[in-house]
Amino acid sequence: MMSRRHSRAAGSAPTMPAARAMPAARTVSAVRTMPAVPAVLAALTVLLTASCGADTKAADGAGTDTRAGGAASGKPAGTCELSGSTEQITARFSMLGEVVSTQWCAIDLTQDSGRVPGPSDIRLVGYFDTTAADMKALLGRSDWTFKQVPLPELPEPVVRAAGVTSSSTSAWVTSAELEKTVTREVYSGSFYVDEKANRIVFDTVNPVKADAKVEYY
């Protein structure tokens, strides 16, 4: 009598064990939440150019369309057309003092650069006048060191509006601590203070609003 173990018919195929299910591949997420600042910078062109849509009078008194940037205004790249709108300047620099009046322009630095289309680099340059009380508080900061410096090269419309000709006697001072406080080291910016005129000149690239969320990595 054959053993049960050997009773399988000779011609029958062996029964293979069922395939074992392979474990699902594990996916490791490497996505890190990026800071909100790039999104703010990407929108800066739209915000600045939109704020300049209305006609205002430039420093020489002539009416002009003050939409910022060559692309927005149909002007050549690098064009500086002045705006007297205080909204955008207050949103970015009011920690230095109340923005009583201002003249500024936003220059698209990436026009005609041959770059793949993307967020523009915007130079926001100009000045604003503040109150005597705010100027005194600004220069009275014990944790900031001010030193006298010459102004950098500025767009001609800004020079005329601010009255900073070669014959002007303004004594401009700046502070590394001031610049670090305003920019939070997320964009480049220089600030020059004239105590006598209660005036602050700013020259920045891609400045974010003061209340923008900044995350450091």
Keywords:
217 residues, alpha+beta, 22% helix
Overall mean pLDDT: 75
Number of β-strand runs: 8
What count of helical segments does DSSP give?
A: 7
Helix content: 10-25%
Strand order of the largest sheet: 3-4-8-7-6-5
Helix/strand class: alpha+beta
Shape: globular
Strand content: 15-25%
Put the structure in a nutshell.
The protein is α+β, with helices and mostly antiparallel strands. The protein has helices at residues 37-42, 44-50, 70-73, 87-93, 132-139, 156-162, 176-183, and strands at 55-57, 63-65, 101-108, 122-129, 147-148, 172-174, 188-194, 199-205.
What would you note in describing this structure?
The protein has helices at about 35-40, 45-50, 70-75, 85-95, 130-140, 155-160, 175-185; strands spanning about 55, 65, 100-110, 120-130, 145-150, 170-175, 190-195, 200-205. The chain is globular, with a radius of gyration of 31 Å. About 30% of the residues are buried. It has seven helices and eight strands, in the order H-H-E-E-H-H-E-E-H-E-H-E-H-E-E. The strands form two sheets. Strands 3-4-8-7-6-5 form a six-stranded antiparallel sheet, with helices on both faces. Strands 1-2 form a two-stranded antiparallel ribbon. Helices cover about 20% and strands about 20% of the residues. The protein is an alpha+beta fold and about 220 residues long. The longest helix is centred in the middle third of the chain and has 8 residues, at about 130-140. Strand 7 and strand 8 form a beta hairpin.
